[in-house]
Each structure stands twice: as C-alpha cells, then as structure tokens.
Write a structure and sequence with these properties.
Length: 410
C-alpha cells in the first residue's frame, strides 16, 4: 500500500475589521516587518546564517520587549533566515523588506468557519477580530477532512488579505493507464496508453486563453508606442493599460483552471497517471524566433501544470514529469514517420499532428519511468507569497508523508 500524501491548499480571502481595529493590525504588521528586517540586518554580514537555537539566544528577549508573542518571535527568526538564504542563493544584495505581511502560527489565531471570522493575536496580548469575505467554492474545505494550518496576513492598498492553509492526507490510486499531456499555445493534446503500451484514447482540449491575452497585451504595447514618453504620466493611459493587462491575466487564470479541471476529469475516468513535460528551461530556449519569444511570457504552461497537479492530487491521481526532448520527432509505434509540415506528420499510413506524436511519446516515457527509476512526482515550484508549508521541528510524524503540494485560490 502506498504512503499517504499530504495535500495542502491555500485559500486567499479578503477580510475587514468591523470593530475598527485596523490600526492595531497595521501597527502589528509594521512591528513584525521591522523585526524581520532587524534580524536580517544583523545576520547578513555573517558567513553563514545562524541556527534556530542561536537566533533564539540572540533575539528572543529583544523582540519580546516589543510586545510580540513567543510564536510571533519564532516565526520572525524563520522568516528572516529564509530571506537571507534565498537572497544569497540568488546572489542578491541585502534585502529591504517593504510589504506588511506576517506569518501566523496556529496557536496565535482562532478561526470560526461557521461564523466566517478570524480572531488574531497582535501586540501586547491583544486580540482583534476579522470578518472574512467568504466564497462559495471554499465551502468544500469546511468538512472535517480538511484541517487548517498556519496563515499569512497581509495589508496592501487598504485591503486586508488572509491566506489560510488547509491540509489533509490523500492515498494515491494504483493506475490502470498512463496519460501523456502535450501543452501547446492553442490546445492541450493527450494520449492514453494502457500498462502494456497499447493505445487507448487520444483527445484534444482547445485552449483559447493565450490568444485573447496576447491581443490585450498587444493593445497595451500599442498604447505605450503611441505615447512613448508620457504614458506613465497620463492617468487615463495608465488605467487603460492596467485594465487590459489585468484582464489578460484573469483570462489566463480562468483558462488554466478550466483546462486543468478537464484533464483531471479525463484522468479520473480512466484512472490514469498524468505525464507532463518537464519544461524547466523553456524561457532560455530561443527556438521559434521573435514571434514565439513574444508569446512565451504569457504562455501559462506552468500554471496549467500546477493547477492540474493539485487537483489531481486531491482526487488521488499521480502526476509525473519526463524529459520532453525530441518527443515530437520520434515515432511512438515503430512505424515510419514523415513530416508533412511544422504541424502534421504521416505516421505509417495515418496522417496526424505532431502534438499527438509528442503526447504519445510522453506517455511512453512516463510508462518507462514508472517501471524503472524512481519517479519525480513534481518539479520544484517557484516561491510565491502564500504560506509555504513546512514540517514542524522535531515532529516525527512528518516523515511518513512523501510530498507536500501547495496552490492558491484567488
């Protein structure tokens, strides 16, 4: 029997302070940010970041005098150490924190999911209450199978945003077939093979989000070209440009959710393992010329992969990644392959698309990966502002989980 996997989702919810406690919250967030900056400043010059115990000895008493609680202080150490280590890894200069954001331990808040309220511990053991602007699609996390974890509270442009993590244990299914997925600019092509490498099904999911987003981006760039010197100083131009770009992003997010949901539905119907391309260095690859380079920044392939991965995980479906090199050029069934043009090929006596050939080869590589070497369940995700779950110090129970996944609901 396979080990359970911990699935973690992060729900972003807007909040308000009905009792007028916004000033207390802002004061707490500023103190939290300044405390993290204090620790960063003092350990930045050291050759190696101190351990948690050393940070505790150096800063605990100083930070407690500011009115912070013990768990606030503990989270500040960890946050400061993460900032320093990640900045050094990227060869950056000493970080200067500006955002009013605080990570809150589970013992420093009380979440009432029935009343949709959040009580939060701030400075000097005071508590404030926030009303959460709940959304109906979050109701699925209200059952007992999902448990809340640590949260993140942020204040931006007069808005209070709360990131709440929920987690539960999932037992992955034993697959009956393998589904190779080829992500393209205008469609998602999948090929399903059984465990004996026999063809089961082929399908195409249209994807029009990128085309619409690129049109909006083109409008924004044309606006900048018409006013190259002063578009930043024209209020109407800034607002128009921002509206177009915001709409483009929303279209891409909505399209990614729709496509990922469809992929998981198909995988669940066949009880399949989903095989994705490992496209880690797609931006560095200049193949395709100027037109393709212009389209790449908006191509949300990684967003589709991440959305599909967490939706599949919740349903107990496995996801693996394989090397996509030459998958659209190699014959998947040992028949002679002849290229008609950049899009279509003749495979034996059948004319098909290169997307089908690519997804077929991806499924074969995924099947080979399952039979042989250790499977990599997911690529390393880039850091995002949401809460990054991590195992508790000294908790042996965390060792039984094989992987943690995160996603943000917006």
């Amino acid at each position: 029997m396979s080990l359970p996997v911990r699935a973690t989702v992060t729900a972003r919810v807007e909040a308000v302070t009905p009792k007028g406690d916004e000033g207390l919250l802002i004061e707490f967030l500023k103190t939290y940010r300044n405390s993290v900056q204090l620790v960063v400043d003092e350990i930045w010059g050291l050759s190696e970041a101190p351990s948690w115990t050393e940070l505790h000895v150096l800063f605990y008493n100083r930070l407690m005098k500011l009115g912070l609680r013990a768990h606030h202080v503990s989270e500040i150490y960890k946050r400061a150490k993460e900032v320093v280590e990640s900045t050094r890894k990227n060869n950056g200069s000493k970080p200067l924190l500006k955002k009013l954001t605080a990570r809150i331990h589970t013992l420093d808040y009380k979440l009432d999911l029935d009343k949709k309220t959040l009580r939060l511990a701030v400075l000097h053991d005071k508590w404030i209450e926030l009303e959460l602007k709940w959304y109906s699609y979050l109701n699925k996390y209200l059952n007992s199978s999902w448990k809340p974890g640590e949260i993140l509270v942020s204040y931006r442009y007069g808005r209070i945003l709360v990131y709440i993590t929920f987690h539960r244990d999932v037992v992955l299914r034993e697959p009956r077939v393998v589904m190779g997925v080829d992500l393209n600019f205008n469609n998602i092509t999948y090929t399903i093979l059984d465990l004996n490498s026999e063809l089961v099904s082929i399908g195409v999911i249209p994807f029009k989000g990128l085309k619409k987003a690129l049109h909006l981006r083109k409008l924004a760039e044309e606006l900048q070209r018409k006013h190259p010197r002063n578009w930043r100083f024209l209020k109407w131009a800034r607002k128009t440009r921002a509206r177009w770009l915001s709409r483009a992003r929303s279209i891409l997010v909505d399209s990614a959710h729709r496509v990922s949901k469809k992929l998981v539905e198909v995988a669940g119907e066949y009880n399949a393992v989903i095989v994705f391309e490992d496209l880690e260095k797609i931006k560095e690859n200049s193949n395709g010329g100027r037109k393709l380079s212009w389209m790449k920044p908006l191509w949300c392939y990684r967003r589709i992969q991440e959305y599909t991965e967490y939706k599949a995980l919740i349903d107990g479906i496995k996801t693996i990644y394989v090397n996509p090199a030459k998958t659209s050029k190699k014959s998947p069934n040992n028949r002679k392959i002849k290229f008609i043009n950049y899009r279509f090929v003749e495979l034996g006596n059948t004319v098909t698309s290169r997307d089908v050939v690519a997804s077929w080869n991806l499924a074969l590589r995924g099947l080979k990966r399952m039979r042989g070497s250790r499977v990599k369940w997911s690529p390393d995700s880039p850091r995002i502002e949401a809460v990054k779950p991590r195992a508790k110090r000294g908790n042996p129970e965390t060792k039984k989980y094989s992987k943690v996944f995160t996603v943000i609901h917006k």
